[in-house]
Amino acid sequence: MSLFLASVGFGLVTASVLAIAAVGFSVQFGVTDVINLAYGSVMIASAYVAYFVNQLGPGVSIWLAMLVAAVLGALLSLVINKYVYAPFQRRGMAPIGIVIVSLGMLLIIEYTIQAVQGTGNLSYTMSQGPTLTFAGLILSGVQLAIIGLSVVFMVGLHLLLRYTRFGKAMRATAADRTLARNCGIRTDRVVTLACLLTGALCGISGTTFAINLGSFGATSADLFLVMILAAVFLGGPGQPYGAMLGALVIGVITEVSAVFITADYKYVPAFVILLVILAVRPRGIFNAGAIG
Amino acid sequence: MSAEIAGAQVRGAALATELLSAGYQGRPVVQELSIRVDPGEVVSVVGPNGSGKSTLLKALIGVVQVLGGRVLWEGREVTNWSPDAAARAGVGYVPQVDDVFAPLTVKENLEMGGYLLPVREVPGRITHVLDVFPQLSRMLSRRAGRLSGGERKMLAMGRVLMLQPRAFVLDEPTANLAPALANMVLEDHIRQLSATGASVLIVEQRARAVLAISDRTYVMAGGRCQLEGTPAELIASPDFAETFLGGARRPAAPTGD
Ligand SMILES: Nc1ncnc2c1ncn2[C@@H]1O[C@H](COP(=O)(O)OP(=O)(O)O)[C@@H](O)[C@H]1O
Ligand SMILES: [Mg+2]
After folding, report:
1. Residues of chain A contacting residue B116, judged by C-beta atoms under 8 Å apart
2. How many helices and strands in chain A, by DSSP H and E?
3. Do residues B230 and B216 touch, judged by C-beta distance below 8 A?
4. Which pTM does this prediction carry?
5. Total tally of structural domains belonging to chain A
6. Domain of A37?
7. Which residues surround ligand 2, an ion (CB under 5 A)?
8. Contact B61/A at CB under 8 A
9. B17-58 per-position pLDDT tens digit
10. Across the interface, do B98 and A179 touch by the CB < 8 Å criterion?
11. Which of B61, B84, B104 is facing A171, going by the closest CB pair?
12. What CATH code is carried by the domain that includes residue A109?
């Protein structure tokens, strides 16, 4: 098997993790209007919770632990939005101010984890499953499961946003909160549910991220946050379909350059892409600005 | 003016304000304005740009903060209610700008207009709205952001029609429309709304056209009501004719900005 195909395989797995994270980030931004940099730290907090559940007993599968991580991610995201970001927004703070606040939340959460857990890395207890060969790619069962999970979430989110009343209300709220209220939509409830939903995606992406990484610590998601931002801005902030495509592009480019440039350098292309997008099309290649 | 007298003045009104002051960041733009719209009436508000017409409507439906005075809906005080409460209570509002969900399709916009309806009633209401605005039926799956100015206004009107509100609060529904289309919207659609018993409060730039469909009109300038009357009374008033119907121009009509 060629080195290129091997790196594409890794890239697809990374892209799958990234897609769950980026879609959650993007929808959360669309509905709440917050560029939530603490998202990466909520991912890691969720990954830690999954670890503790995973360690409860030999029979506790990481996939079950992931559900608990999703709940934690949902609740933590809601609390941060409701009690930190939203009060600042109500007082009329500019978006850049909220970004700084979210950076502060990122540090608070990461250092809290470090204070509790120390600086050592953790690994889940799990089996990698059988190795499978598929179209020239060699993937472990776990890697295939991550790809499958990501596809299921993307399709599920698509159906939710296009075909359900709540999904459409979420898109309406993201597009124009005042007009949504004029329609009788209780937008504060929509924002609450959207925080829970995207927070759950954040928790699940955090756990799959930790699984994919093998061993993780409090600051492990910092560079991944740059990839999330790159994927989100590539797709246009607030655009879930853009974020999916952005994740695929950024995920594959990152892993391919890890093999063909050097592993230490693998995050740089994502960062360069992010800078180029911000310079050329601040609202993303797929344009618009609200959940389309 | 004492509160008791003001109270008597709004008895029986569908929608009314008493000495309403409202504005942004605690600074009033609209000042001590009292208006009333009776059931089935078409009442218009005209005035130069920046005189506070949009602010008045936004304060009525709870988008802008009321700083003083009261808002009444069907005899109940609703001052500083929320826009979603206004929608639930039967008041349909079409803003001057940002009047449709641009990333949503035409059909989805109508569905959001009917958000408060039981799900099974939504398709029937959409059919009804498409009877009123047949042009929209050819573009149901088009994104609202792609519509022309006229189509967009029809969609905005169609969206509020979904809930069959008992009062319509319309902010310049004919802005950016070609004159022929503007007249059609005013004469056909808006007059028709009141024929079905709904009350209409409408802000308009086209003073002459809106007078033709109004039962009463308020003239605003500088956030206050300067004149009030039936169309015939206003047309007979030299002040009004001069400013709004193109008589000898005064040096400057008082404008708010
Ligand atoms: N969101 C806002 N914040 C601060 N001032 C505003 C805002 N919207 C309108 N204004 C001011 O309020 C005044 C009245 O505006 P508006 O109600 O839109 O007038 P009109 O609809 O009659 O043209 C203007 O001076 C305008 O600058
Ligand atoms: Mg206006």
Report:
1. 183-184
2. 12, 2
3. yes
4. 0.90
5. 1
6. 2-280
7. B 54, 96
8. yes
9. 999 999 999 999 999 999 999 999 999 999 999 999 999 999
10. yes
11. B104
12. 1.10.3470
